[in-house]
């Protein structure tokens, strides 16, 4: 299959479920052909973009083992526009910026080297942020702004100190659905400008990815009823 990557160096203790959990951050997986005895796997994705993201993880660590991720073909990013009438409540994993995907890995406790984080930044700089993702963020910005602040208002165009109270007003008005995922919640808080800039620009540093990982971990812990930030493991070089 065209959208496949080859993975070697897998730990003998790693299960197929663990492989799936690790690589599903890249995008929707079609199949995994895993030879446990040899520590090799072929992973097929639905989209070439996801396979290209998986190659970014070459040298990543899973279950204490350093993975080698390669491919026999050159994968191209999906440039298809969003279909008319698309559902923008959620965005597909493979359409996210690579730096954002790297931040999700760190937030979940996976170890990625500085080289991998730099690779993610480089991919975003080379290919730009996908139009699908930019459309998604723009839609959220406008939708949240109009519902919370009034007609023709956007979150990004309003002083952030007013956004938090507007967020609360929107929830009181029954617009909770609009704030059900990380991006909508983050945009509607005082740190929203930083989050928006991180996901919509290609100008990033490694510490920006680490900072975003901490924000994601904090949000996840809050959803689970905890408090404070989940420590993001230090990256190895």
UniProtKB/TrEMBL annotation:
Pfam family, any one: RRM_1
Biased segments, Basic and acidic residues type: 86-97, 213-223
DNA-binding is among the record's keywords: no
Top-rank taxon: Eukaryota
InterPro entries reported in the protein's UniProt record: Nucleotide-bd_a/b_plait_sf, RBD_domain_sf, RRM_dom
Entry annotated with the keyword Repeat: no
Residue ranges of domain RRM in the record: 3-69
Region entry Disordered, spans: 75-97, 213-237
Record protein name field: RRM domain-containing protein
Organism: Coprinopsis cinerea (strain Okayama-7 / 130 / ATCC MYA-4618 / FGSC 9003) (Inky cap fungus)
């Amino acid at each position: 299959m065209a959208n496949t990557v080859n993975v070697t160096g897998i730990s003998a203790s790693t299960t197929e479920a663990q492989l799936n959990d690790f690589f599903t951050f890249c995008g929707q997986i079609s199949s995994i052909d895993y030879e446990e005895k040899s520590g090799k796997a072929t992973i097929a994705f639905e989209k070439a973009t996801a396979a290209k993201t998986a190659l970014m993880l070459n040298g990543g660590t899973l279950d204490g083992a350093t993975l080698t991720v390669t491919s026999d073909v050159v994968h191209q990013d999906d440039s298809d526009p969003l279909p008319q009438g698309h559902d923008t409540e959620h965005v597909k994993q493979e359409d996210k910026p690579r730096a954002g995907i790297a931040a999700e890995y760190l937030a979940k406790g996976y170890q990625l080297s500085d080289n991998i984080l730099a690779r993610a930044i480089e991919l975003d700089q080379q290919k730009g942020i996908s139009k699908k993702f930019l459309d998604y963020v723009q839609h959220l910005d406008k939708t949240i702004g109009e519902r919370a602040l009034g007609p023709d208002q956007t979150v990004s165009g309003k002083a952030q100190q007013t956004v938090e109270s507007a967020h609360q007003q929107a929830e009181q008005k029954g617009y909770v659905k609009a704030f059900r995922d990380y991006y909508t919640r983050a945009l509607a808080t005082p740190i929203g400008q930083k989050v928006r800039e991180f996901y919509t620009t290609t100008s990033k540093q490694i510490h920006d990815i680490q900072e975003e990982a901490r924000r994601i971990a904090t949000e996840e812990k809050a959803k689970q009823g905890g408090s404070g930030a989940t420590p993001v493991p230090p990256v190895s070089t």
